[in-house]
Structures are given as structure tokens and as C-alpha cells.
């Protein structure tokens, strides 16, 4: 995640730079980007801002925000916007600085099993800031900076200045250092393996654009990819440029969706639905590849010219190396899709201009490295990579990948090193810190200090962590195997959290500091992670509610306690920073031949500032330059080509990540040889939430069933268990148990249930191991193991369970209440 959502889309590529140079030929004054006429249209009584859900205008009454209206140019406004407004005032809003009573009275490490029981004491801001400063110094002095964990992963709000994670690291660096994390939960496996395969992380890179697809693609395959749901939100401010899919639909393009769920995207295109057993896609792709090869449908010329190592993969495909030919029949026995369908897919893919669009959830699984590698191998065999409308795309479902990139400047951001000039890009792929662990291995680190683990060709010694500081993330939602995690958390002396919602993470903290929402402070951001179509003023809509303070003000207060206030702020206010970022973008923009208005005009305009898009970008084709000249535009791999066999990975000698794409049984799966529980859980990203965000708002009433998180189930599975729509059920396995409300539907295949990630963890008794989660946090049931020694990614999509009707008096859900009055 979030990613270079991060570095991919925001980097100014050589391509963009060149088109910028072309534009500068327009003259020194450049293209004026905002006209007087545009200013006149501004509604005076509404305040413009932006968030993960898009650009919007806010109306206030007596200092209270009363309505958020999507920006009139938003092509596909998110239905979640009312929940965004409600997150300011919902009953789960954090109002005051709070400290866990046992910690306050008996010091760090007191009664750690009592975390989550809700026994907090309200303190003043001065007391809170002093407690945090003293504790940061104590831990650093007693056990060293690496015993402070500042990885703090999560979907903090957008904004170039109030980036709470960068602001945290800025403070921790001033305090002498910390342990950080690398990678993310979104694409942990893919982003590590793809540099070996195609020379870049690829998952956050631009795809062949939707206009190009509309014109050239004959067959679009959404393989575990669901843009209609997932591109509702973006890492920056959403542009909803995925709406440009409409032209492809209107052109009558053929669509196949390969997914255990018949998705909203499948409905949108009225596509063909194929539902393999989850976690078996690599086998299905091998079956298609085998058919292509045996029927001579593969493009040998492409393989020879643009790829390396197909000859070393081939003996595995044909079975020469292991005695198992990866035929369509072999694949069918594993994935459950009929042999003829697999063979037919091979023929259809080869006979049409085909785009393979892969989502991320298929790599958030045990051995998740393999699927992106195998998809690219399949696309290489089809030989359409770099052709208009053909090949593969890895972000069609994410932050509106495929929306054409505009010719805009880089908007700088606050950095985690005071004094360093501001730069664009994101904090967490840089892996800064005195020690760094793969992000999904924090629980493993807490449980096994000193252990040496493999990671991407290196050895990492896990540090001993005493203090964790989290801002802008919800580990008690995003991490797997909750009960193991709760035990591990007891190793911490101190857990500090800033948030604006009483999430399960805040409830398990020792010190909770109330942060402002983006709507209570000023900021600036770009619109569209890929489109970069506008710069939007994110204006303060209302004053901070209750005692909330911005993360910047909180960290400044702590830095002042450390005697480092000036070093932290560099003597600049919120508006000084924002103005500085804008001015730097204005200079870059001038070099590109465009004239941005002066800051005050931009800020007062109450309008997003639009940038132009060139014809070249409208029609961008991924890897076209590589295809045109594979020597001049060689990929960043060892061979400069697409690597179907990686000698670098071979050298690591990992038993769980061989040197070519390989089908390996996951630890558990539907129909797996050693699997005992009968139902696979698809823990998809929610339709009406962003992860756990907005679960505490009124939106919940629109989807909760029996007051709990919904559990989708096929009629066959429901009948076998005597369940009817709306039943309260218990889903359980050896790792944990949760309550959920059943929704019976045939849009999910038999043997699979869907419980979205992000339901708030609500243990009936936080002191009891394995306690029943009353609301429905799916990560109580998922596995905590990593994808492999190569990437050490998370396996949130690996979980098998049983479901039964809940009998007895249902316990009341308690997690949505405030713990500060
Ligand atoms: P969010 O609910 O977005 O989840 O996990 P992540 O931790 O990102 O949490 C963000 C928190 O930050 C919220 O509590 C919000 O209130 C807070 N916040 C927002 N803005 C600010 C701010 O300005 N300041 C402060 N202090 N707080 C702020 C998401 C993660 O979950 C991701 S990205 C993925 S891809 C994974 N997906 C799955 C999955 O598919 N399946 C399972 N089983 N598990 C997953 N976990 C991962
Ligand atoms: P998911 O919804 O988890 O999204 O993007 P990602 O692609 O990971 O899964 C996409 C599809 O994969 C689902 O339809 C699911 O049924 C299918 N699927 C699951 N397992 C398998 C399998 O084994 N095989 C096949 N073929 N399909 C499978 C996540 C992306 O979405 C990320 S990383 C983030 S951080 C954002 N999160 C949200 C969010 O929380 N809420 C919304 N509305 N939108 C988001 N967009 C982003
Ligand atoms: Mo993610």
C-alpha cells in the first residue's frame, strides 16, 4: 500500500518529461492554468476539499459540517461519502487524550493482558505530551532506538503536509532513531518478486490506458480484479478515472471475470463469470499455458526476443522435469474449472487481442509470489505485451490505474528528515530507520527477538521491540491471526496511538491521542494516483472538535518537550509548508511550459487546478517502448528481458520460491490435500468501507446483518448447515472465532464465503485467549504466516473455516462506543 501509490504513478518519467519539453515550446509564459472566468463560478458558501473518496464540497452550519457533496466533475462519486462526513461526529470519535489506568498508575509494562478492556483515564494535553516524551527517551536510553517501532503502516489520510506517518518518523529520527518496516500489505509478495521478472515493482505502475483499451482490446480478463469496487478510493485524492471503462463497454468488448465472487465489475460489463477454487489460479494458468504450447498457439518469436529462461520453464510445464505435465486436465482437478473451459480460454486468449488484468488479493496468499510471475509468463506466451490493447495490466483495479496521466508537476511533501528539502514520493518504500523488518513480520518480531529470518536474498535479525507508536493505521484490523497478535502485543511495555476513531487499535493502546480528521486542518494534494489531473486545496472545513489536535501539532508538542521544537517545525506553520510545496510545483510547472496561478489565487479559487493531458499519454501502451527497442529500452532485470527463469532467485535457494513460476500447495485451501475445515473465506476489500475506516459510522447500518459484519454464502452451503438469510452465525477454526450475519446469495461460488476485511475486532473478553469476536473481524481467522522467504508478505486471503448457527443469547457488540465519555 500504499504505497508508492506511491512511487509508481507519481514519478515523472522520461516520457512525461519529454512531453513537458514539447509543451514548453508554447512560449515562456506558458499555458495559463486558471482563468478569471473559472474563479467566478465558485460557490461562496461551500468549502472545497479532497479525501481518499474524491474531491468534494462541504457545507457548514454554525461551525458544524452538515453536507459533503461530490465535486461536479467527479465521473463516479463514491457512495461512501456520507460516512466520511459522519466520521467527524460519530459516537466512536476520540475526544480527549486518554491513558490506560494500569499503565498510568504502575508504569510501562503494567498489566499488559488488560489492554483492550477499556479502563482509561482522561489526562490533559500537557500531561499526555510529557508522558510520551519521557517514555520515548526512557526506551531509547535503556534499550536503544531500535526498540522503538515506528513502521506504523496504514491508510492515513491524503495530504502532502499532514502525512502522519512521515511526521512520526520525523519525530523519532530527532529522538535518535527507530525500527521501521518495508513493503506493504497490499502487494507484499508481488512488489518483491516483480523486479526480478520485469525490472520494476510494476503493481503500482500505469497500465495501457482505458482509451487505448476501448479502441484495441477485444477480450478483457479481470482476474481477481474488481475496479468498480476498488477504484472508489485512491491513495491520494480519488479521480475515479476508472469511469473511462465505459467506452470499452460501449464498444462491446468481451469480458471474462475469473473470481470466486461474481463482482460488481462483472455485472457492469455483463461479463462471463468463471469461479475457480480460490488460491488455485497458478494451476489454472499453467493449464492454459500447457494448452497454448501443445497446440502451437504460443508466440515463440516474442519469447525468443523479449524473454529469458522459457527453455528452463518448459520442462516443468511439459512435466519432463517432475513427471507431471501441467495439462488442462491436471489444472482442472486442482482449480475445479472444467478441462474444456481451460482449453477454450487458451484458444480465445490467443485468437484475440487480449488484456489480462490481475488484482492483488491473489498474491495476498501463501506462495503469493507465483501468480504475478505466472500471469506475465502467460502474457509472454501470448506475445501481445507492448501492443495496443494487449498484454497485461496490474493496476486496472487500483486507484484508477489506466486513467491517462496528465502533464503535471511533482507536488513535494513533508519529509521525515528535518532540514532535508521536500521531495515527492512516499515514505515507506524507502525503508528508512535504524533497523527495518518486512511489514507483515511485526508480530513475528515481537514473539522472536534475535531470530534471523530470510528476506529477498538477505538475512534479517529481528530486533527486540519495547515501544510501538502507531499513527494512521489500524493493525488490530489489518494484521492476520488476531489471537497470536494479541499475545505478541503483551511483549510491549508501551503502545501509543493517534487516531480520530476508537478503533480496536486505539482500544488496545496505553496512550491514545485524539487526532483531527483532514476536515479540521488545511492541506494540499494531487487528484488521481495515475491521472495526476489536478492539484486540490484540501481546505479546513471546521475547527477541531473536542480536544483533537493535528498530528503535526501533537508531534511538535512532544518535540518541544524534548527541547527540539524548532528542529521539528523548522520555524514554519501549516500554511507556510503548504505554500512552499505549491511554489516548488509552480516552478517545475513553468519549466514544463505551464503557468500555475500564484498561491493565493489558487487557494481562494475553491477549485481544483487542472492540468492538460497529451495525446501520447491518452494513448499510452505499457511496455511499448520495450517492444519497440528491447536493447535501448531494456528492462531493469539481470538480462534486460522478461525473466521467466530467474538465476538470481535460483541463487537464494529458497524451498518456497523456486526460480520459475511454480504451483505449490498453500498451507490450506478449498479441496486441499491436507485441509480440514470446509469453507474458504474471501476476505475482500469492502464495498461500503475503506478497510476499517467508516466502520464506526452510520454506513454500517446499510450493510450489517444481525448487527454484525455480513457473511456471504452460497445457497448450497447454507442449506447444508440449515441456515437462512439473516441468521447469526459463528465462523471458527483453530485460530479463532467470530460472529457474523448470513447473507445467502448465488453471486459466490459453493465452498467459499465472503467476510470483508476491516470489521472492528470486538473480543467478548480481551483477557481470554481465543475469545469470541462479537462484531466480525475476519483476521481473527486468517493465517499469520508469510508468503515465502523471498517476500515475507502477508497471507490475508489464506483461511479455511466452518460456520454454524449461533445458539443462545447473542452478546452485544461493544466496539463502536467511545471510551472517553
Ligand atoms: P485502515 O482501516 O485504513 O486500515 O490496513 P489499514 O491499517 O490501512 O486504517 C487506517 C487508520 O488510520 C484508521 O483507523 C483511520 O481512522 C486512521 N487515520 C486516517 N487518517 C489519519 C490521520 O490523519 N491521522 C491519524 N492519526 N490517523 C488517521 C489496510 C491493510 O489491510 C491493507 S492496505 C491491505 S491491502 C490488507 N488487506 C487485507 C485483506 O485483503 N484481507 C485480510 N484478511 N486482511 C487484510 N489486511 C490489510
Ligand atoms: P480484493 O477486494 O481483496 O481487492 O485490491 P484487491 O485486488 O486486493 O480482491 C479483488 C477480487 O479478488 C475480489 O473480487 C475477490 O473475490 C477476488 N479473489 C479473492 N481471492 C481470489 C483467488 O484466489 N482467485 C481469484 N481468481 N480471485 C480471488 C485491493 C486494493 O483495493 C487495495 S490493496 C486497497 S489498500 C484499497 N482498499 C479498498 C477498500 O478497502 N475498499 C474499497 N471500496 N476499495 C478499495 N480499494 C483498494
Ligand atoms: Mo492495500
UniProtKB/TrEMBL annotation:
Residue ranges occupied by any Molybdopterin oxidoreductase domain in the UniProt entry: 93-560
PROSITE patterns with a match to the protein in the record: MOLYBDOPTERIN_PROK_2 (PS00490), TAT (PS51318)
Signal peptide from the UniProt entry: 1-40
Residues in Molybdopterin dinucleotide-binding domain copies: 680-795
Cofactor(s) this protein requires: Mo-bis(molybdopterin guanine dinucleotide)
One annotated Gene Ontology cellular component of this protein: outer membrane-bounded periplasmic space
A GO molecular-function descriptor: electron transfer activity
Main location class: periplasm
NCBIfam families cross-referenced by the UniProt entry: bisC_fam, PRK15102.1
UniProt family annotation: Belongs to the prokaryotic molybdopterin-containing oxidoreductase family.
Identification of the protein by name: Dimethyl sulfoxide/trimethylamine N-oxide reductase
Organism taxonomic ancestry: Bacteria, Pseudomonadati, Pseudomonadota, Alphaproteobacteria, Rhodobacterales
Amino acid at each position: 500500500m500504499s504505497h508508492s501509490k506511491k512511487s509508481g504513478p507519481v514519478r515523472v518519467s522520461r516520457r512525461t518529461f519529454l512531453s513537458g519539453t514539447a509543451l514548453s515550446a508554447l512560449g515562456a509564459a506558458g499555458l495559463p492554468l486558471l482563468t478569471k472566468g473559472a474563479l467566478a463560478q465558485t460557490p461562496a458558501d461551500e468549502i472545497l476539499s479532497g479525501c481518499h473518496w474524491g474531491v468534494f464540497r462541504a457545507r457548514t452550519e454554525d461551525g458544524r459540517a452538515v453536507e459533503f457533496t461530490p465535486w461536479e466533475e467527479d465521473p463516479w462519486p463514491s457512495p461512501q461519502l456520507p460516512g466520511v462526513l459522519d466520521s467527524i461526529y460519530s459516537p466512536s470519535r476520540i475526544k480527549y487524550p486518554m491513558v490506560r489506568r494500569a499503565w498510568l498508575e504502575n508504569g510501562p509494562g503494567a498489566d499488559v493482558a488488560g489492554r483492550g478492556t477499556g479502563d482509561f483515564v482522561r489526562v490533559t494535553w500537557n500531561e499526555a505530551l510529557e508522558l510520551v516524551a519521557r517514555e520515548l527517551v526512557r526506551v531509547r536510553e535503556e534499550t536503544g532506538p531500535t526498540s522503538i517501532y515506528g513502521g506504523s503502516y496504514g491508510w492515513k489520510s491524503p495530504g502532502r503536509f499532514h502525512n502522519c506517518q512521515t511526521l512520526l518518523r520525523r519525530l523519532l529520527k530527532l529522538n535518535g532513531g527507530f525500527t521501521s518496516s518495508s513493503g506493504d500489505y497490499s502487494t507484499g509478495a508481488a512488489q518483491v518478486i516483480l523486479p526480478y521478472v520485469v525490472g520494476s515493482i510494476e503493481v503500482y505502475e500505469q497500465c495501457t490506458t482505458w482509451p487505448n483499451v476501448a479502441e484495441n482490446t477485444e477480450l478483457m480478463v479481470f482476474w481477481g480484479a474488481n475496479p468498480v469496487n476498488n477504484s472508489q478510493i485512491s491513495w491520494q485524492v480519488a479521480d475515479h478515472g476508472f469511469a473511462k471503462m465505459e467506452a470499452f463497454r460501449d464498444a462491446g468488448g468481451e469480458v471474462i471475470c475469473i473470481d470466486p465472487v461474481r463482482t460488481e465489475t462483472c455485472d457492469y460489463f455483463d461479463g462471463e463469470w468463471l469461479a475457480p477454487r480460490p488460491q488455485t489460479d497458478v494451476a489454472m494458468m499453467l493449464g492454459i499455458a500447457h494448452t497454448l504450447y501443445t497446440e502451437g498457439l504460443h508466440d515463440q518469436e516474442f519469447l525468443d526476443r523479449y524473454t529469458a529462461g522459457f527453455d528452463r520453464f518448459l520442462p516443468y510445464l511439459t512435466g519432463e522435469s517432475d513427471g507431471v505435465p501441467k495439462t488442462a486436465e491436471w489444472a482442472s482437478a486442482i482449480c475445479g474449472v472444467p478441462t474444456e473451459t481451460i482449453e477454450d480460454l487458451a484458444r480465445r486468449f490467443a485468437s484475440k487481442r487480449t488484456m489480462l488484468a490481475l488484482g492483488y488479493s491473489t498474491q495476498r496468499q501463501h506462495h503469493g509470489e507465483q501468480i504475478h510471475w505466472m500471469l506475465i509468463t502467460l502474457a509472454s506466451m501470448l506475445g501481445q505485451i507492448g501492443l495496443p490493447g494487449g498484454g497485461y495490466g496490474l493496476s486496472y483495479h487500483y486507484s484508477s490505474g489506466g486513467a491517462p496521466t496528465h502533464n503535471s508537476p511533482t507536488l513535494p511533501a513533508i519529509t521525515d528528515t528535518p532540514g532535508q528539502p521536500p521531495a515527492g514520493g512516499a515514505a515507506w518504500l524507502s525503508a528508512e530507520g535504524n533497523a527495518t523488518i518486512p511489514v507483515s513480520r511485526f508480530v513475528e518480531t515481537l514473539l522472536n527477538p534475535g531470530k534471523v529470518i530470510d528476506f529477498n536474498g538477505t538475512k534479517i535479525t529481528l530486533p527486540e521491540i519495547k515501544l510501538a507508536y502507531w499513527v494512521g493505521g489500524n493493525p488490530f484490523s489489518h494484521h492476520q491471526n488476531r489471537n497470536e497478535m494479541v499475545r505478541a502485543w503483551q511483549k510491549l511495555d508501551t503502545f501509543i496511538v493517534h487516531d480520530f476513531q476508537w478503533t480496536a487499535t486505539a482500544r488496545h493502546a496505553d496512550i491514545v491521542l485524539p487526532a483531527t480528521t483532514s476536515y479540521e486542518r488545511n492541506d494540499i494534494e494531487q487528484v488521481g494516483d495515475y491521472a495526476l489531473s489536478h492539484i486540490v486545496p484540501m481546505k479546513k472545513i471546521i475547527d477541531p472538535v473536542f480536544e483533537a489536535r493535528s498530528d503535526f501539532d501533537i508531534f511538535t508538542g512532544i518535540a518541544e518537550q524534548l527541547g527540539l521544537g524548532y528542529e521539528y517545525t523548522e520555524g514554519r506553520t501549516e500554511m507556510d509548508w503548504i505554500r512552499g510545496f505549491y511554489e516548488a510545483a509552480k516552478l517545475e510547472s513553468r519549466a514544463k511550459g505551464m503557468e500555475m496561478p500564484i498561491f493565493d489565487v489558487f487557494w481562494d479559487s475553491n477549485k481544483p487546478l487542472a492540468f492538460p493531458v497529451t495525446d501520447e499519454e491518452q494513448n499510452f501502451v505499457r511496455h511499448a517502448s520495450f517492444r519497440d527497442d528491447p536493447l535501448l529500452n531494456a528492462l531493469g532485470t539481470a538480462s534486460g528481458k522478461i525473466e521467466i527463469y530467474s538465476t538470481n532467485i535460483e541463487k537464494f535457494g529458497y524451498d518456497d520460491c523456486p526460480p520459475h513460476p511454480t504451483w505449490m500447495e498453500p498451507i490450506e485451501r478449498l479441496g486441499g490435500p491436507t485441509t480440514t475445515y470446509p469453507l474458504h473465506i474471501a476476505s475482500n476489500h469492502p464495498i461500503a468501507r475503506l478497510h476499517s475506516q467508516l466502520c464506526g459510522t452510520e454506513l454500517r447500518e446499510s450493510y450489517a446483518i444481525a448487527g454484525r459484519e455480513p457473511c456471504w454464502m452460497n445457497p448450497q452451503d447454507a442449506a447444508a448447515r440449515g441456515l437462512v438469510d439473516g441468521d447469526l452465525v459463528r465462523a471458527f477454526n483453530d485460530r479463532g472465532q467470530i460472529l457474523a450475519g448470513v447473507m445467502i446469495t448465488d453471486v459466490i461460488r459453493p465452498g467459499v464465503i465472503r467476510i470483508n476485511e476491516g470489521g472492528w475486532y470486538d473480543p467478548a473478553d480481551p483477557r481470554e485467549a481465543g475469545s469470541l469476536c462479537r462484531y466480525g473481524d475476519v483476521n481473527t481467522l486468517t493465517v499469520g504466516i508469510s508468503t515465502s522467504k523471498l517476500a515475507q508478505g502477508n497471507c490475508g486471503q489464506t483461511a479455511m473455516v466452518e460456520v454454524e448457527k449461533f445458539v443462545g443469547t447473542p452478546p452485544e457488540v461493544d466496539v463502536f462506543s467511545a471510551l472517553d465519555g
